[in-house]
Design brief:
It is a multi-pass membrane protein. This protein has 267 residues and is mostly helical. It has one domain (15-266). The protein has helices spanning 15-36, 44-61, 65-71, 73-93, 96-103, 106-116, 119-124, 127-142, 146-151, 157-176, 187-210, 220-248, 257-266.
Length: 267
Amino acid sequence: MTGHTHEGHAGTTAWPLIAVIVVAVAGYLLLARGRRREPRGWSGGRVASAVIGAVLLAVALLPPVATFAEHDFRGHMLQHLLLGMLAPTALVLGAPLTLLLRSLPAAGRRRVARLLHSRPARVLADPWLALALNLGGMAALYFTPLYRLVVDGQVPHHLVHLHFVLAGYLFGWAVAGPDPAPRRPSVRTRLVVLGVAITAHAALAQLMYAGLLVDVRVPVAELRGAAEIMYYGGDIAELLLAMALLVTWRPTPRKGRRRTQATAVAS
């Protein structure tokens, strides 16, 4: 197996992305400050979660993590764990959509509600689709020639990073997000999806540790170390999602379920 290297220099192309993250966090904090003045307030825990998610994104994109990722497959896996699981989970728990809905005027809330009830939104809110995008991206990267294309520069690695962030956020929102979602399945169904995700994630990590089917040409020590990061780090992120799902769950009478979901979207 050959060593692991990326073309380019860590952090040199990340600063525009860091600027976007800073602007997004500043906007979130301004909206949260406005809501905290209201009688209903805004949870400090949500603010902390959103900030932590943004910090984790920045940590993943800048040295020393980005430098480690360029030269060692274990660093690459740590970077993708931050980008694809831990940071998106924290961002989801910050409930940015709910904050936006509470900050918009009535006309703006109605437009967002229509968007949430659109056909594309209903498709994206399906937790099974989110699971397929999340795990499918991992499988495609590590068990096909895609990883070598990324390392060789034929596929921009920032596109891969973007996929991991978006897929991770979509999965967190569909399974355990506090933000409203169209036609959200029952808690039982979402727990089943999360259980499948945990099992499949562990299976991918074990295959990588054993060197079976994996199409990544790095030293065995790096491959096994990366598999351990995937296995144990994934457990942490998925445990956080399970806790968030159970903590935020509130039983709703069957007759009032649709009415409650519509109210949540409009509020």
